[in-house]
Each structure stands twice: as C-alpha cells, then as structure tokens.
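Tutorial handout. Part one gives the primary structure; part two gives the three-dimensional structure as tokens.
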Amino acid sequence: MKHKLGDVVQIKSLNWYKKNKDEYGWVEEERLPSFGFHMSEYCGMKAKITAVLYNCYFIDIDNREWCWCDYMFEEDIQEDMVNHPSHYTWLKDKCGIEVIDITRHLDFDLGNSVKYILRSNHKHDASISDKGKAIQDLEKAIFYLKDEICIIKNSK
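Part two.
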C-alpha cells in the first residue's frame, strides 16, 4: 500500500472512470475491491485518509463509507501550497468558490475570521493533532472577531 493515515490523495477523474467501467458501472482490479458507480461522485476530489485496514483505505469525504485502493487514486498529486492549498480550496469542490473568493471582499479582521473558520478541520499539521489544529483555527477566528468588536466599540 502506497499511502498512510493522514495522507491527502486525489481520486481518479470522471474520465478515467468512464473509460474503465464495465457495462454495470464497475471498475475492477484483480483481488482488490471494486470501484463502483456509487463512488464516481467523488471522482477528481481530494480526500484525507482516515483509516487503513488490510488493503483498504477509508477517506474523510465519504464519511468512511467505501473501501478505496491505490489504483483508485492518482499516482502523483502535487499540491500548490502557495496559490491553492487544499485547506482553502476544499470549498471549490462543494460550491465552486475558494475561501479567498469570499475573504477578499471583507476587511482584515472579518476576512481572517472567515478564513480560519472555513479552514478548520481541513488544514493538517504533523506537529499537532487534527483536533488540536481545528481548535487552534477556531481560537484564531475568535481572536479576530474580538479584535473587530473592539474596533467597532472604540470607533466614534
């Protein structure tokens, strides 16, 4: 198995699925779990591996419902950590916009509050648990909200 707990993977594209599926909507590799039509809704998406069991991965975006294998993931994904890090682009898969598309229209404190709220549970850091990172992001959001409240209270 190529991946470990916490790795971010990208599920193969819908084009890959359409080219490889059989007449029943299944893609099968010898002695591995099948990629079924019900999994195709996740094609092209990035996901975090939340559990590894035998030759099977479980991922966050399907609530650990399906068993995923190496052949179902793109071979090599290079995350653009400067322009489009996944902890800010996950929203694009849901509704077509990135976090920056929202925050660029807000002032500094409100923009940062929204940024930290939206990236909570999506940014992973090896030096801290996912739960700890989520709490840290939410505490940062509260800091910026409190700062904005102080500015409003002290304005003339």
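Part three, for discussion. Strands lie at 8-10, 46-53, 56-59. DSSP finds five helices and three strands in the chain.
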